[in-house]
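In these records, each integer encodes one residue's backbone shape. Here is one protein:

___
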Amino acid sequence: MPEFFNVMPPQQALQTLLARLDVSLPRASECISLTVSLGRATSTDIISPETLPAFPRSTVDGFSVNAIDTFGATPGLPSYLEVIGEVSMGKPPSISLNTGQTAVTYTGGMLADRADAVVMIEDTQQIDEHTVEVLRPVAIGENMVHPGEDVHAGDTIIAQGKIIRPQDIGALQSVGINHIRATKKPRVALLSMGDEVISSDQTPIVGQIRDINTHTISAMISQSGGIPIPLGIARDDFDEQLKMAKSGLSEADILVFSAGSSVSIRDITADIINALGDPGVIIHGLSLKPGKPAIIGIIDQKPVFGLPGNPVSAMIVFDLLIRPTIYQLAGCKFPPEPSTVIAQLGANIPSAPGREDYVPVKLENSDVSIIAHPILGKSNLIYTLARADGLIQVPIDKSGLYEGDFVKVRLF
């Protein structure tokens, strides 16, 4: 058996990889409709072509007024204003106010000409068809938005490298933008390996296992904004694996080996990565449990990863290393982090200083807090994660966590 590798903390490994990738290289982009832009990274700054709002708008139902006409108004001594009409929705106002006059105004609609505030209908009392009492004063600009208060023409509304969110789609469409330029999705080739691995639609005989990593990792690639390219299953043969790896690398931006990072004598993944080109393997081993034997390489500025075959290990390594790498290659300057919650640990978790442990937990609501129950199991048991709501991290410098400790849960 070869000598075991030196290990590195996952975040240090990720930074080492990204530092050796030229992330300043221009990424291919494409014009896409906003209807399919959710989760995509913008390839350019997006500039507003319009001012929003384009006209003074009321934020309440009520009456357009000159604020000075309401000064000093109280329920006991109201201001009396003449109602001279209403401002129709969706049309320019045809009413101009003089001293002591007002006009009915609706939420989202324009104000009457020469009005500088809106009185809420709740603060008025209708006397007759042409007279209203104002029961409290309003300040200039109250209950209204001014032209350009939201955005001005020429403003940068979405910066380059930002992931498009639902609210961004609404903001863009509000100024008439229906298409954007986005960085093309990174293509991620995935090669499963092993004589014992069979397709998931086959029935295994004794000694065989279904290939679940192709499907779970492909789903995680899609969830991270990439395009999965499953290459199939390669037998434990150097030439076959090298040929399939070359093919995958030629059509993808990232290459991932599944079940190609153990330290057994049958593991030839590191040799294959080195045979693909320079610089080859740059990291072999992480101070991580599960996932210690992961491999990271670079071939002609393309990241290459060797994931452990155990599904829990593979998914955790993917989340820590491959997910942020996909976002970087997608042009995202600030990759989104998974949501977290603070919970109280429901049982002790032993660990060992010098490595990061990631432990699946099941969350339960109690009367006083959220309880995180550890799901302890071997890394080759997929239902360890299927039953879990998230992961907690035992820091590298701790020998464990104790029941009752408050911990941060990284949600799936």
The domain at 31-52+159-183 is CATH 3.90.105.10 (Molybdopterin biosynthesis moea protein, domain 2).
